[in-house]
Amino acid sequence: MLISIDWIKDFVTLPEGLSPKELGEKFTLATAEVEDVLTVGAHLAKIRVVEVLEKEKHPEADKLNLVTFTNGEEKFQVVCGAANVVVGMRTAYAPLGITLPNGLTLEPKKIRGVLSEGMLCSEEELGFAEESAGILELASDAPLGQTMLELFNETQDVLLDVDNKSLTHRPDLWGHFGLAREFATVFDSKLNSPFSSEWEKGLRALITDSSAPMKVSVDSDSSCLGYFGLSLDNVTVGESPSWLKKRLKAVGLRPINNIVDISNYVMIELGMPLHIFDRDKIKGDTLFIKRNSTESTFTTLDEVERNLVASDTVISDSEQPLVLAGVMGGLNSGVDENTKNIFIEVANWKASQVRTTSTRLGLRTDSSSRYEKTLDSLLLERTLLRTLEYVLKESPDAKVNGGIQYDGPDLSKIETVKIKSSAESLVKQLGKEVSFEDMKKIFTSLDFHVDGDASSFEVTVPSYRATKDVECESCLLEEIGRIIGFDNIEPISPKFDVFPVRLTPAQKLHRKLRDFMVYHGESYEVMTYPMVGESLLKKAMWPVDRGLELINALSKDTELMRTSMIPSFLEAVSKNAKNFEGCKFFEIGRTYHADDKDFRKEKSMIGLVHFSKEETPFMNLVNDTTRLLDSSNINYQLSEKHPKFKNNIVDEQWKGVHPFEFYNIRIQGKMDGVILSIHPIVLKSFKIKGHVSISLVDMSSFEDREVKDKTKYLPLPKFPGSTFDCTVVTNADTEVAKIVGALSKLKIKELQSTKVVDVFTMSETEKSVTLRSNFLDRNQTLSGDFITEASTKIVATLEKAGYPLKQ
Amino acid sequence: MLEKLESAYSTFSSELENLNTQPDVLNHKSSYLGKKGQVSEILKSLKNATPEERQAIGPKANEIKTKMQIAIADKLAGIELAAINEKLAKNKIDITLTDAIKEKSVRHGGLHPRTLIRQEIEDIFLSMGFDILDGPHIETEFYNFEALNIPGDHPARDMQDTFWFKDEKSEEGNKHLLRTHTSTIQVRGMQGRKPPFKFIAPGTVYRCERTDASHEMVFQQLEGMMVGKDISVANLIYFMKQTLKEIFKRDVEVRLRPGFFPFVEPGFELDIKCQVCSGKGCSVCKHVGWVELLPCGMVHPNVLRAGGIDPDEYNGFAFGLGLDRLVMMKYGIDDIRHLQSGDLRFNSQFQDY
């Protein structure tokens, strides 16, 4: 929203010598964020009337002239391309250094070798017209040297562009009078209110009590909070005077005609929207404010046909809706150049209803954006009188016809908001000493009334601040704080009891996993989108689950919550495969699953990804994954695909499952993890050349549990252990785990472990496997006899299982 | 006899010098110091000497013997070392062929820059006694709006473009959505606690907003809240300044201005002096010299009530911090979309934390 400082000055005297920037900063710090400070008309104060003395062709360019002119005192020369330059004409000269409304700053420069000292301006360059041909032609008696500001009776202004969102809670600041009150408080100045009781009396005296030609009738189930109306006859519609047009243009409104312009002017001045009807276009003698009751169409002022629903409130005559309450008037009842008699409507509407209607229609107007902030019905009458004042001023022949009409809730029943507080309480919450006198001064300046003394007082909130904004003691705190400047409060450490705090088990675990993956897993942490789309899922041949679907996704590619990280991982690999021969990354994130009872279930996942162009990274990934789980004290078992126990993370029927490279990770009996390689058929669909292995673990079931330190210390053995190595021969495709497993039932209590030392491929069909068994007896040195006996048992067991010693 | 000993020692020394193998040195040793060695032979004639002579020769003979033994030991040690060194020389490796010089080198990975900033801020708040919480990404209207003093018809709902779920089953007014801010944790956090308490809640949030170089629909925020008796605006400013000082590793000039958020009263926007231009005005701060960083304020009584806390007895403050904005500022990242691209050319730049 644009604030015109010139307009503000109607109501308040601002301190001298404030720069526009300071003005904006102060307002930002006390009230609301000023996003931009614009200076209007500053250039006009420097552009002066000159007379052309000479004109000669530019030596280097056919279409350019060298023009010499005077401002009455000095002579200047510029290079000018305008066709309408003639000797003796008076025009506008912009000297070097000024910035024109189109953003051009005049700097000394040579045009084809000739220095130009500024420029002669067109209407467009002065900001007077959207477009124009040639330079401005002034009357021959325009005083030489006079500024454009004086010549055209223009006003210099400063415009503050305020972020609308920061005024969401301040309906009173949607008009310049309300803003002026704020400026008065911020700059410690007096508010000059024109709205005295004399002013009111004077206007009321013009209103006759004879029966009105247009009456109003408000249905109680409509969104109306109060409806005032007044009829005037014999109005002259015409162009608005320049002061009015200037003000409207300054805040970004387009002047239309004096009557429409007045309605806009009063809205911008007082913050209360209003509507003026051409009364002769209203059928019947009563306006009905009611719910639309059926679905229908309605053409608004902007000539768009809108669909109305039954709950929309409309203002209708005896035949049809004329205005969509609080949003926009209709095309059928507006004031035009032929209008003679008018009806002024000043009404208030329920914020939620206006918001619902305008949101549904996608129609945000100056009116709806004010009403949806919740306006004060007690300001309606003043707004009506102000409108009347301006109409009579701009159309002196107009006559009031009848009295002020009102229907709607009894406004005298609106409750005054009073808030109890004390100086001590506010100081305590602020954390800064402020005297009761200073508080009182701030409140009074903001039109709040204070009763009582420092130890206990009651603040009466002005009605226009009480609609939604100021409702409790905290709100008083805000008023005091922002005016003394929150910035002026010194930081103070709070006093509080000290409690130990620590990371939760899940947070600790996540940190540990991350560190492990970075330092040991040599992986990069990534974050991929939690949303996916059908096209990605189809590419991954992953089933499309529409359980958690967004209504208003920004694109089809992000409309579903991911139920697995795998498709996103594959997408990331395909991107990285363009730049890397191989890569390793991981993500700690969530997957999202529709749930009948709780709507959704979010799982906390960790996913590891290995990609290699050369060979399958499956074994590396298995080892990384198991080390990761071991390092974090997670109990698990790896198991191969099982016909009965299905994996919970990956559907084994998924086309991307590798036929052999697959492990279930069983955690607490549940198949909550998986390590697998991706089937080339799916990699092909992502144009990935190489091998991809992925492991995933659902941590939801255990991450919140405190991990117990299960370390059991044993004294160091006093007696040495012993080892026994043997090499067996087996088929090339025998899994080594089976050979080691053959010894699992061997009962030798001194046998600590048997591990694979080496695997040697002997031929295409045979390999040899070297095993080492480790023995230890904590109570004595192992005897030679024992070793012989034990090794014989081991060899016999292996042989029996089909793994004879290598000869 | 003394002369004999002296001359024996000098020949011993000069001969030893030319010996280079262990057996030669050992032979040399026995030929002088052995039972039938030269020194023993010389000393045999000692029995014919006078007691005076014995007294003079005895110590001298011992001295020479010791010197010879030391020389032998030194020589042997030298030979062993030479042998080892020769072996080492044979097995010399190219120490410049480090992993770093290889195309396929093994290096540690790296955390996501968001994690780096997040953990740092978590640690700052942990050290000041704040718990760290999180909650669901898919939320209900209650936690995202109602409980935060933003009823259904409140215009403030427009401030946060919300992703809504297809949700026929849930009742009107409590539909499911993707949380638009971590403020959802305010009420969730209050519900399980008794004042005084303080916590932060970092996490992912979602806004239905077109993505470009500086806007993301999925990003990270950090919520903070402290509730107790007699908490003041000055306390809020204290924590904010301390935190920023820790984050930026120096005093940062801040300014506090009113800002409207329905869940706080009074509400503020905390701006920091632009770290790029130090306040002179640049494109980063849109030429105002300040960068909006941290919305905050005193918790609205209605929000305390929604969290089951009596606003007449307790009050508190809350704040929100855009983690992604800090990440972008700290590392000068030009495009926010890199954060979720999974492109390792981006992620691999954050190894050296």
Textual characterization of the structure:
Chain A is α+β, with helices and mostly antiparallel strands. Chain A folds into six domains: 2-41 and 157-186, Phenylalanyl-tRNA Synthetase, Chain B, domain 1, CATH 3.30.56.10; 43-151, Beta Barrel (OB fold (Dihydrolipoamide Acetyltransferase, E2P)); 206-413, Phenylalanyl-trna Synthetase, Chain B, domain 3 (Phenylalanyl-tRNA Synthetase, Chain B, domain 3), CATH 3.50.40; 418-484, Phenylalanyl-tRNA Synthetase, Chain B, domain 1 (2-Layer Sandwich); 505-698, 2-Layer Sandwich (BirA Bifunctional Protein, domain 2); 722-800, 2-Layer Sandwich (Alpha-Beta Plaits), CATH 3.30.70. Helices cover 25% and strands 27% of the residues of chain A. In chain A, the strands form ten sheets. In chain A, strands 25-28-29-33-32-31-30 form a seven-stranded mixed sheet, with helices on both faces. In chain A, strands 5-4-3-6-9 form a five-stranded antiparallel sheet, with no helix packed on it. Chain A has a five-stranded mixed sheet with strand order 11-14-17-18-19, with no helix packed on it. The longest helix of chain A is centred in the last third of the chain and has 17 residues, at 784-800. With 353 residues, chain B is α+β, with helices and mostly antiparallel strands. The model of chain B has no long low-confidence stretch (mean pLDDT 89). Chain B has two domains: 2-90; 113-350, Bira Bifunctional Protein, Domain 2 (BirA Bifunctional Protein, domain 2), CATH 3.30.930. A seven-stranded mixed sheet of chain B has the order 1-4-5-9-8-7-6, sandwiched between helices. In chain B, strands 2-3 form a two-stranded antiparallel ribbon. In chain B, helix 1 packs parallel to helix 4.
